[in-house]
Design a protein that fits this description.
Distance between the termini: 43 Å
Helix content: over 70%
Number of strands: 0
Order of helices and strands: HHHHHHHHHH
Strand content: under 5%
Number of domains: 1
Oligomer: single chain
Largest sheet: none
């Protein structure tokens, strides 16, 4: 687990640093430094807790709890800090949260609540991470993400040393881990660009619709069956995007 987190974060760090250099971005200063440190701690905690939850828990618990918390917390923060959006946008946000809950549901007849604590920690930390990075100054994107990834990598290395946990992933897994790191960095970058140019509540809830893409890809690539809940969730997500797009125009 630690190896996956560490190498994915280092991959994201290298990509962010390279793009920051190409864009001639300067390192964060002043309040942005504090934001990067807080976001780094929250992001590292969230990702590690999520992977731990997936390792020890049940997907039926981990997916909806993490997904909904990661969506709702930034939305609430955006409404508190920036005020209520237009009624149509607000309706779209409500539909989007319902869509996340439905597409994250997994058929699971097993008992127990394994992974619930880790899922709660992951959802809380990821949600607060989304709020934290929204506080960065406009235009400060890849240099800030480089600092955030550095903090996350240091925290993971400290955890490895403290717990003496195994951390070297299998060589055959490295390409997949690096791809995860690159995609994670891309997601963070586009999210940050979105909150710097629009409302936090809108950007956060739209980015939280990623489980919809996961379900669709699983059906197309892995030929997995789409359940009735998934179908309804995908439909609600489409309606949510339309309402938010029209209401934000």
């Amino acid at each position: 687990m630690f190896g996956v987190v560490l190498f994915s974060q280092l991959t994201g760090l290298l990509i962010a640093a390279a793009i920051a250099a190409l864009r001639a971005e300067t390192l964060p200063a002043g309040q942005d430094v504090a934001v990067c440190l807080v976001a780094g701690v929250l992001g590292g905690l969230g990702v590690t807790a999520l992977y731990r939850a997936l390792a020890v828990g049940r997907m039926a618990i981990v997916a909806p709890v993490t997904g909904v918390l990661a969506a709702v917390i930034p939305v609430v923060a955006g409404i508190v800090l920036q005020g209520l959006p237009a009624p149509m946008v607000l309706a779209g946000i409500a539909l989007a949260v319902a869509a996340v809950l439905l597409v994250s549901r997994v058929a699971d007849v097993g008992g127990g609540r394994a992974g619930l604590t880790e899922a709660l920690v992951a959802g809380l930390a990821i949600g607060l991470f989304g709020v934290a990075i929204a506080g960065l100054s406009d235009g400060n994107v890849f240099a800030a993400l480089s600092v955030i990834r550095s903090v996350q990598a240091v925290l993971v290395m400290a955890a490895i040393v403290a717990t003496r946990a195994a951390w070297r992933p299998a060589p055959r897994a490295l390409p997949a881990i690096m791809a995860v790191g690159a995609l994670d960095m891309g997601g963070n970058a586009f999210y940050l660009l979105a909150v710097q140019s629009g409302a936090l509540a809108v950007a956060s809830v739209l980015s939280a619709l990623y489980p919809v893409v996961t379900v669709i890809l699983a059906a197309v690539v892995l030929r997995e069956r789409i359940t009735r809940d998934h179908t309804i969730g995908i439909g609600l997500a489409a309606a949510a995007i339309a309402l938010i797009g029209i209401g934000s125009a």
